[in-house]
User: What shape does this take?
Amino acid sequence: MFEQHKNCNFKIPETHNTLVGKTIDSKSVSKRQQIWELSAGWQCSIIGTCLPLSDLNILAKKLKINISKDSFQEYQLHGFFAHETQKQSKVSKMVQKTLDRRHQLAIKKTRKLSVSELSDYWKLALASGDIPGPYWALLTHPKVYEDLSEQMFADVHMLSHLVGASNRADIKQLKRLDAELAVVNEKFKHRRKLFLKKLIRKNHEIRHLRNIYSELSSKTEFKKRMSSPNKDHKSNQDLTQLESKIDKLNTELKVAKTITKKQKLELVRVTNLNEAMAQELLFNERRMQLSNRRSNLVRKIDLQGSFILYVGGRKNIINKLRSYVENNNGTFVHHDGGLESSMKELGPQVIQADRIYFPVDCISHSAMHVVKRTCNQKAHSSYTPLRSSSMSAFKLALEAHFESGI
Assistant: This one.
């Protein structure tokens, strides 16, 4: 019977010296290795590389394992499973089952490979950034040999060292974006105050002009009723002057309305840009948190068959966006915002989509309004404004959504 573990305060085995103490003989083994059959030390690398913390937390909950809730909670969770999988037990069997289920596609691909093909498969996996599945499938493969095992471990080990350098670059970028956002916010606040003052002043002018117009119209109507063929030339001249003044006021009113409309559109543009900048900063913070918790540099994401709708954007980059989504197990649909595509198609596409993205610098106001209105009506709040129509802004948003679950 499995006993509940009270804590995980123990020393994790050394891996550098005893990692390949047990040679995997391709002639004597006819089936895949189980994780507890591997030499002590492999388990740490496998748990850290092939199982995300979310899977470890699920397993810990099923096994009713108590981990002390301190700053080393994730480290202790990793250490517990790395230690327990060195022997055959309920824990190691559940980990084996989870690994086989998560990486079943890689296991299937390597099943019929020859000894010489195993190394080529690892090189392709390393080049593409798809590490976890091939790492697990090859380490437990019945034909794997010692040199390849050592090379795989060395590659993954060096990737873990490179995480620090990558994180430093991400921190630098995050600080720069934070500073840019602060500047944009200050400019936005200042411009918003100016716009509001101008709008208030223009509204007062419009009301004043309307009052004058109403007053002049009344006087004009009165003079028309009171005028007669016997009136002198001066009365007709006054009437002409009044009509000319009314025309001038009407022209000024139209100009004031045009200026007000432009200022409102500019306010909407700045508001959307500010929202997109805030989202990008949030995405970078989430990506930093994920990078600190992972033991390799894999950036490949699983879109889990999600329907991705991209509205607007530049025509010359749409095929690249489509390829990126489809290569990561997603479905990509593009609507150009009304340039060629019908606006009637946009509403149903928004309802059908799992995620909607649009660049605020390359989308019509009418298309943006349809997306936001449809999402609000259907309680569908998964639209995301992007600061620009670049590939990097789109990839950053997808990674933040599908790696961290936001």
